[in-house]
């Protein structure tokens, strides 16, 4: 991929265009926000620390691409990214400081990301070490040692030069076989760290979380040093050991440092359903104030404004993390958020409802378009699917119709419609149909869906 961090705003928009139809304003804003991180990092040192990110509020009905834009953006940016649902913090059992968990998650994400990259860089070296380890298991090496003569499996003293040479030659032969993958199916016994934590969920008291201590990790850690022996095919052993060896080759401390840097300078937190923690200014909301909603906003405020959060990997400063809030704001308005929080999301972008013609494009254009997904799934079974233009138009028409008649769930409607459309085929392949071409034309769409669309009750449940 292109060095994503240096994408210009227009390049970002072009990349987003590959996945998201319409929503120009939203794409533009996030693209600018992303580039602003780079601008800040390259700005004069004196003022750099003063430049704060302009957080964004994405406002728009359900299923029009809010989350999708944020997700794609983070991938483009190669930036640490987490998505949280604000409403989750209003649930029963919520403890004040839980809101900080979003920063902890971000840190965990970043650390994994950095470690993956570092492991990737040492992959070749690690692979060599893995091969030696496997070879040692297959043909244990013989080494000259006066004080401690080694014996081979049968008990002979192998402590002489010719046996050593023989051993080395055998190892060489096996090394070759290993390289060629000839021994992939052979089983060997290896010692593996039992990384699997015991299957239980631990709910720590809020106070522990606050200190950045995670009970689950502590317990998991206890099991971590236990080693167990397993017999696995060499192909599998390779993967297990590769993980172990590359982990050994990387420096945990510098990974943590790098992750901290990235979180603080490039981290993106996507707060979904932020409207659900706003207090509607009219009607019931006023008379029976929902304390926990305002509470969540108050807890959120310091994090968004810039504060420090302790995580088990160190203290994270949140000042320059980019926050993208998102919500439908049907019942509440952005102005129903507490003023301090409103001020922290100065960029407001409205996303449009999607139209029938947007649906036509969404169905066919994005790299991950639904039609392409179904084509790929059935191609895996040897069946070729073709969509006619009229069929796609009809699907879009139905989606728009059902959205208007039942409930407007935006592009999500396309998912339910496509799964109904393909229901019969997905069951018939490969048992009844295992090759050939199938044309999805308008008539086929009508045959599969008309009944559902006309029957209001059915469309409520199925489409
Ligand atoms: N403009 C669009 N272009 C392409 N696909 C879209 C678009 N809008 C939505 N989709 C598709 O619809 C699905 C739902 O979109 P998304 O998750 O972004 O909705 P949302 O706006 O976040 O809604 P909600 O408010 O319910 O969270 C995704 O699978 C996405 O790929
Ligand atoms: Mg969403």
What does this structure look like?
This protein has 463 residues and is α/β, with parallel strands linked by helices. It has three domains: 4-115 and 256-350, P-loop containing nucleotide triphosphate hydrolases (Rossmann fold); 123-249, no CATH class; 356-452, Orthogonal Bundle (Helicase, Ruva Protein, domain 3). The chain has 20 helices and eleven strands. It has a five-stranded parallel β-sheet, sandwiched between helices. Strands 3-4 form a two-stranded antiparallel ribbon. A two-stranded antiparallel ribbon has the order 6-7. Strand 6 (308-311) and strand 7 form a beta hairpin. The longest helix is centred in the N-terminal third of the chain and has 21 residues, at 101-121. Bound molecules: adenosine-5'-triphosphate (ATP) and magnesium ion.
Briefly, what is this?
By secondary structure, the protein is an alpha/beta fold.
């Amino acid at each position: 991929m292109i060095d994503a961090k240096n994408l210009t705003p227009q390049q970002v928009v072009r990349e987003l265009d590959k996945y998201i139809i319409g929503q120009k304003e939203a794409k533009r804003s996030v693209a600018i926000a992303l580039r602003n991180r780079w601008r800040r990092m390259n700005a004069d040192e004196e003022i750099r620390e003063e430049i704060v990110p302009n957080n964004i509020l994405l406002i728009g009905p359900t299923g029009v691409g809010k989350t999708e834009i944020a997700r794609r953006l983070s991938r483009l940016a190669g930036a640490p990214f987490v998505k949280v649902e604000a409403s989750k913090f209003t649930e029963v059992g919520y403890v004040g400081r839980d809101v900080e968990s979003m920063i902890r998650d971000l840190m965990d994400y970043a650390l994994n990301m950095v470690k993956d990259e570092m492991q990737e860089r040492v992959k070749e070296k690690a692979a060599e070490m893995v091969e030696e380890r496997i070879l040692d298991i297959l043909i244990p090496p013989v080494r000259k040692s006066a004080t401690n003569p080694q014996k081979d499996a049968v008990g002979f003293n192998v402590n002489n030069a010719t046996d050593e040479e023989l051993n080395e030659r055998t190892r060489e032969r096996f090394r070759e076989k290993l390289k060629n993958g000839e021994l992939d199916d052979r089983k060997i016994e290896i010692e593996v760290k039992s990384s699997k934590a015991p299957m239980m969920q631990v709910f720590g008291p809020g106070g522990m979380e606050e200190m950045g201590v995670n009970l689950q990790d502590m317990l998991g850690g206890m099991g971590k040093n236990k080693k167990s022996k397993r017999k696995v095919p060499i192909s599998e052993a390779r993967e297990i050991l590769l993980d172990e060896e590359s982990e050994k080759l990387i420096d945990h401390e510098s990974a943590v440092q790098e992750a901290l840097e990235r979180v603080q300078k490039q981290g993106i937190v996507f707060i979904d359903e932020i409207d659900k923690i706003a207090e509607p200014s009219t009607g019931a909301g006023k008379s029976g104030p929902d304390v926990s909603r305002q509470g969540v906003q108050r807890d959120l405020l310091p994090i968004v404004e810039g504060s420090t959060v302790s995580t088990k990997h160190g203290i994270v400063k949140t000042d320059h993390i980019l926050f993208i809030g998102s919500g439908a704001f049907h019942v509440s308005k952005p102005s129903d958020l507490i003023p301090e929080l409103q001020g922290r999301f100065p960029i407001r972008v409205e996303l449009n409802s999607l139209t029938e013609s947007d649906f036509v494009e969404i169905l066919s254009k994005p790299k991950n378009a639904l039609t392409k997904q179904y084509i790929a799934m059935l191609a895996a079974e040897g069946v070729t699917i073709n969509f006619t233009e009229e069929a796609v138009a009809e699907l879009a028409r139905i989606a728009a119709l059902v959205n208007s008649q039942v409930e407007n769930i935006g592009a999500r409607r396309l998912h339910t419609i496509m799964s109904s459309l393909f229901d019969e085929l997905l069951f018939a392949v490969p048992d009844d149909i295992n090759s050939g071409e199938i044309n999805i034309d308008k008539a086929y769409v009508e045959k599969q869906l008309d009944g559902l669309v006309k029957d209001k009750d059915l469309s409520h449940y199925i489409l």
